[in-house]
């Protein structure tokens, strides 16, 4: 199972979902879907933008759990 740890990274960076939405240019609704593990897919460009703003690696956000 793929798990999204966006909430963990937001907490580490002391950033709200709203602030991330504004900086990345993605709606709060779409980020919320991603954060709550409801997304079926994510574009690499979206992941890259999130990583740039949060100053992290994709592996910090997305994790494979057995």
Key features?
single chain; about 70 residues; mainly alpha; 434 Repressor (Amino-terminal Domain); two-stranded antiparallel ribbon; about 60% helix; about 10% strand; globular
Structure summarized in a few sentences:
This protein has helices spanning 6-12, 17-24, 28-35, 44-54, 58-61, and strands at residues 2-4, 62-64. It is mainly alpha-helical and 66 residues long. The longest helix is centred in the last third of the chain and has 11 residues, at 44-54.
How would you explain this protein's 3D organization?
By secondary structure, the chain is mainly alpha-helical. It is built from five helices and two strands, in the order βαααααβ. The protein has helices spanning 6-12, 17-24, 28-35, 44-54, 58-61, and strands at residues 2-4, 62-64. It is globular and about 35 Å long. The relative contact order is 0.27. The mean pLDDT is 95.
